[in-house]
């Protein structure tokens, strides 16, 4: 058992930063919120679709980035190049995913997640590999998402700052 | 519905023979080449005895088909599970069962029809006559969907294991025995009912595969 007694409620526009040291269970909490793992006990309700960003890209490694993102865009019904320019991926669309750097891979995963257009964002260590400009870009994007009525849960051991972001120290609930 | 076509399209692009998407290794052609290699080497191994070749040739085609179906098992499910594709599909409400059903179809299309075509030159190499070739082809048509279903189920079951590739081959062979008995057994006479039985087994396997495979993928998330 990683944690117990965790209780949280987020409404439209709400944002929560789940903080805590490595191994405390931040990713597990996010996977439970996503419905991909089951809590030992407890209840979870949500309204609206959610999208998850974790360390796995879910993009075909040997495909050019544009085509790999296009696969998800056609499923999600978004414009193929939506957000790629904004995320600084415009010049990389012809580059196979396996040649991308760590930070570029994170940006590609963000493009996939934003393209899903779901109201709830679950971000698992979204800052890993991002440079300073990328971090502030992601903070702005998340802030915009929340001011437009979205919900964001960010699990990160690194600081994440924008107005209206609450912080939960998962260590307080650790077993 | 469009998601189903997108996933089928991606699966086919990854699995069909000649596809360059399998990591650029050309791995998708290997099962076919392997099949033809077995058919080429077999006459050299047993000697130039035409009646013996014709009598055993159909069985050799079946064994070669079985082995060709095993070759792509390790890249059927495991890479997508590792890269988070199944999680992302689940978040979009696309069930594991649907994905496995689509993959079974794509896997069959990638080796079933190509093997049936390759069986024609193979039959020439083995000295099989036209009537026997017809029974072999009908048997392959009835049996290969079942082989595809077993293959995808086992690929899903072993996806989380480190030694999955070797293990899945070992697991597939015993499960394929009923298909081999009736599919290849059609060559021994009374071909109609044997092929019908092979087809029936195939249908059962194809019906079970999505549920078994989907459950296996969900179970691998818990671990």
What distinguishing features does this structure have?
heterodimer, A: 175 residues, alpha/beta, Rossmann fold, five-stranded parallel beta sheet, 4 helices, B: 223 residues, mainly alpha, 10 helices, 0% strand
> Using DSSP, what is the number of strands of chain B?
0
Total helix count of chain B? Answer: 10
Number of strands of chain A: 5
Largest sheet of chain B: none
What is the rounded distance between the termini of chain B?
A: 31 Å
The CATH class of the largest domain in chain A: Alpha Beta
Helices and strands in order:
The complex is a heterodimer of chains A (175) and B (223).
Chain A: E1 15-19, H1 26-34, E2 50-53, H2 65-76, H3 102-115, E3 120-124, H4 132-147, E4 151-155, E5 165-169
Parallel strand pairs in A: 1-4, 1-5, 2-3, 3-4
Chain B: H1 2-15, H2 30-46, H3 50-70, H4 78-82, H5 85-91, H6 96-126, H7 130-157, H8 164-175, H9 177-185, H10 191-222
């Amino acid at each position: 058992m990683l944690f117990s007694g965790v209780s949280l409620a987020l409404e439209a526009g709400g944002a929560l930063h789940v903080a805590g040291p490595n191994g405390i269970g931040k990713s597990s909490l996010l996977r439970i919120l996503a419905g991909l793992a089951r809590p030992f006990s407890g209840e979870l309700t949500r309204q609206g679709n959610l999208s998850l960003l974790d360390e796995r890209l879910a993009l075909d490694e040997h495909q050019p980035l544009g085509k790999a993102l296009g696969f998800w865009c056609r499923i999600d019904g978004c414009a193929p190049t939506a957000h790629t320019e904004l995320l600084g991926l415009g010049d990389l669309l012809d580059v196979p995913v396996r040649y991308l750097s760590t930070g570029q891979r994170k940006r590609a995963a963000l493009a996939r997640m934003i393209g899903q257009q779901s109201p709830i964002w679950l971000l698992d260590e979204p800052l890993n590999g991002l440079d300073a400009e990328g971090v502030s870009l992601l903070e702005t994007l998340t802030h915009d998402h929340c001011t437009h009525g979205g919900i964001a849960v960010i699990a990160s051991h690194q600081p994440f700052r924008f107005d209206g972001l609450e912080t939960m120290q998962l260590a307080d609930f650790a077993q | 519905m469009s998601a189903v076509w997108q996933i089928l399209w991606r699966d086919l692009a990854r699995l069909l023979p000649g596809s360059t998407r399998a990591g650029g290794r050309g791995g998708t052609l290997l099962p076919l080449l392997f099949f033809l290699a077995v058919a080429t080497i077999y006459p050299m191994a047993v000697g130039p005895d035409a009646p013996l070749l014709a009598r055993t040739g159909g069985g050799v085609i079946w064994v070669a088909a079985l082995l060709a179906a095993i070759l792509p098992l390790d890249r059927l499910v495991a890479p997508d599970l590792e890269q988070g594709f199944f999680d992302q599909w689940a978040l979009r409400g696309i069930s594991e069962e649907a994905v496995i059903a689509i993959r079974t179809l794509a896997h069959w299309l990638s080796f079933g029809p190509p093997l049936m075509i390759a069986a024609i030159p193979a039959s020439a190499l083995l000295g099989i006559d036209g009537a026997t070739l017809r029974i072999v082809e009908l048997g392959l048509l009835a049996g290969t969907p079942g082989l595809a279903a077993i293959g995808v189920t086992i690929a899903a079951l072993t996806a989380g294991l480190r030694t999955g590739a070797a293990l899945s081959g070992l697991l597939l062979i015993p499960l394929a025995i009923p298909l081999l008995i009736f599919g290849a057994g059609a060559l021994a006479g009374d071909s109609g009912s044997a092929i019908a039985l092979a087809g029936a087994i195939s249908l059962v396997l194809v019906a079970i595969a999505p549920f078994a495979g989907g459950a296996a993928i969900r179970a691998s998330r818990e671990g």
